[in-house]
Amino acid sequence: MDDKNNVLVPMDFPDPDVIRVGNTYYMISTTMHFMPGGVILRSYDLRQWEIITYVYDCLEDSPRHRLEGSKNIYGEGMWAASLCYHDKKYYVCFTANDTRKTYLYTAESIYGPWSKTNIEGFYHDNSILFDEDGKVYIFYGNKDIYVTELDSELKGPKSGGLHKKIISDIAEVQLGYEGTHVYKLHGKYYVFLIHWPSTGKARRTQACYVANKLTEQFIGKDIFNEDLGYCNQGIAQGGIVDTPEGEWYTVLFQDRGAVGRIPIIFPVHWENDFPIIDSKKQISIKSSHPNHVYEPLVTNDFFEYTDITKEQVRIKKQWQWNHNPVNACWFMKKAMSCLLIKTDKISRNITQANNCLTQRMTYPYCEVEVSVDASQINVGDYTGLCALQSKYSLIALTKKNDGYYLVHMKKSGPISTMGNFYDNQLGEITEKIAVDQYQIRLKIIGDFSNMKDKVSCFYHKDDSWIQLGEEIQHQFTLDHFVGCRVGLFIFSTQKTGGESTFEAFKYIEEVR
Asked: Is 2.60.120.200 the CATH classification of the domain at 320-509?
């Protein structure tokens, strides 16, 4: 399958919302339990993207967000943000299912600083519209889609303002209308929605509804039902954006299995003021900065940070922590060019481990390497490289009373339900070998082509890579609700205070 014309980013950037400000495009994506959160990407041609900032370092400082004990926000946290620009100010709005709050962040620059407030109420998958008459509306919902007028300070519903159900999904569906994106164009109101009918090919579709006035009936239908020839995985949940030249495009996402949900782009044209998505048309968009060199969305890291303050430093933008990091438990050691992570809690497995540092894995194939020094771990500690999902796999050095071992571990057994994830079992060790060293180079290879979703683990010995354990079948599940991440980790099962260092992280993206 040749989908290079349409795939924007071959990794997990779900629920994209794209805007244009002048000649620059910005995209925000769901980041759930990863911190910093609210990732924002930039492009000058709608095709190439780079991470430029995050909306927040920490959404909430709570036991769940800190991954304390058995508490977590897997499958929750920040969902499906809307991004807009109005009157020289940027707005990011989203809900978090764990707190049941609606968050509004504002900034005069896309780079921040961002100011945080809350909008009274819970507005699922919302989109904000600043109308020409000065009124502000929030569109939201699941199956039943509503519009609510907000007060002038965007603190909550306007007293006596418009509140109306505008669309209701009465058909048999696996997923009712949601993922709202709203626009005022051609003097009309357009609402774009994701949909998943139970009939026909039973995959995600994109819908659009339109009305001349908010008080009138919205008329619409499913406008896109394609899978790019990829495993009947529908493409939906997104909006539209125009170029300075007046061309229109839609940016949606497609499930690609364990690697996650990846952004997809298609041209759009208008017939009788109604959008038509062109799935076959080749895309050619003029860049406003043709000589710009984009930073990669994944990166090598030799941990040679020079701007270290009090032994800590802001990590590269491609990294995110799994939940809020414990800042006292990670350091960059400038003299050694390494990352040091230590433990402060007892964990049963990788999903409970604080300070797991992650990057997205890429479709269709990727491999990562890192050198691990486990000389300071305690008996019962595990440290190494993981492919992080609820059904994870990892390769780690561990210490027993009789010395060091290298183990391959996986999660086996049933998964949890969405918003109710808790795994209190040790992973299943598929292979364990004794080693006479506490320093070793490790590798993980992921093959996500055509939803193979296979991950293999290796260690380096005598100038060769040797596989440890079995090839693991990974899976995108709703309890974590994110694509597979590679992670650097240490967790303690018996005694806290162990520490591990990581050096020379190498990321390779290529097709076999």
From this structure: yes
